[in-house]
Write the structure tokens for this entry.
Amino acid sequence: MSLFKNVIVKTPGESYLNGLTTSDLGTPVFDKLLEQHTNYIEALKKCGVTVTHLPASEEFPDSTFVEDAAVLTPNFAVITNPGADSRNGEIIEIESALKSFYNKFYYITAPGTLDGGDILQAEDRFYIGISERTNEQGALQLKELLEKEGFEATIIPLKEFFHLKTGIAYLGDNRMVVAGEFVDHPAFERYDKIVIGKEDEYSANCIRINDYVILPAGYEATKRKFNEAGYQTIELDMSEVQKHDGGLSCLSLRF
């Protein structure tokens, strides 16, 4: 797995409290959310990356989930077309921020929709989830341009999960964290799997950044599996992020 040098994060605005959610976990507590976001940034710094920190945008309640607005590779950036209408404007700021790092851009265009949370990279292969937010046209657009650039791309229609990365993460070393519908999915047969049980599913959304795997706090079985596999771990309380269908990967663009 190549080293990450940079991450982009964005402070949540107070409008986050009115953002999109399918969960029934209650209304987020804003001060606690900000504290969790600050701790997230500190954890990223511990992993040895440079953090680009964007200010809050009250007009975009879900924009702290920067991952959905772009798909990044070492050589080019893909600006997505998020599947929720209220999020379309988020791509303008993300593209602007990425212009400091990239000079080659691609774009997902309507009627195609695509959320970055549906895209998983494992070395030279990408997995593209079709979900409520990423449609077939968007998935096919991304597959075509990735293949043109020399990557392999596999489209995976989702049955249960909100986003592809809700239930899967790549840790490098041919090792895949899988939960739910991905545990026995034929697309992932090639990998050594760390299987996450039903009750710990939320912890499948973890992120490997250089020497660490960051996972949500409170999942001892998952932490133990990561430690036994040889990874150093950082645990973060994600309660207020989880209330709005968010996870660790959603809160940053890593490249």
User: Anything to note?
Assistant: The longest strand covers residues 125-130.
